[in-house]
Amino acid sequence: MLTGTFQRSLDSKSRFTLPAEIRKELTDQICLIPLNGVLYGFTPEGFKAWVNSQFDHDGKTYNPRDRRDVRLKLGLTSRAKTIDVDSAGRIALGKVGAEVLAKLGLGRDLCVVGADDHFEVWDAEKWAIEDALLDGDLDDLMFGSN
User: Fold this and answer.
1) Greatest CA span in the chain, whole angstroms?
2) What's the pLDDT at 145?
């Protein structure tokens, strides 16, 4: 399980170092996909399982004859990039593409956030806002408001 929040900065080559706590759970390659305003990071096997899980509901699985299923799978897999983790544990975000990084608003200062089966790469300022909202909402999310 990937957990924790870690501050990171991009170097001059648009790389950041994965936290050791997260890196030990990963392989030498990761799949990055921009979703919901952040980058999700998975192992290749984890990404495949996650994509397949999008279709496992109500006793159904992926149907290659269902236009929605085909388009969703294509949308997810075509936007993902498989990137090597170098020997120093760095990920080159530049390989995701400058337009994707700009769209996500990812600047020099980042937060790497563990999210169970994947990690997320957030712009540090955006994460600070989200984290403050979580601080205020966590009790209600867990126990409901009375």
Assistant:
1) 51
2) 61
- Taking the C-alpha atoms of residue 21 and residue 116, their distance in angstroms, rounded to an integer, is 13
Enumerate residues 6+ apart whose C-beta is below 8 A from 23: 85, 89
Spatial CA neighbour of 32 closest among 22, 20, 24, 42: 42
Q: Can you give the pTM of this predicted structure?
A: 0.92
Task: Give the N- to C-terminal CA distance of the chain in Å, as an integer.
Answer: 31
Q: What is the pLDDT of residue 125?
A: 97
Answer yes or no: is pLDDT of 146 > 60: no
Give the whole-angstrom CA distance, residue 34 versus residue 55: 19
The length of the chain in residues reads 146
Which pair of structure tokens corresponds to residue 52? 């397949």
18-51 burial by CB neighbour count: b if 16+ within 10 A, else e? bbeebbeebeeebbbbbeeebbbbbbeebbeebb
DSSP letter assigned to residue 62: -
Domains in the chain: ranges and CATH: 5-143 (3.40.1550.20)
SS3 label, residue 58: coil
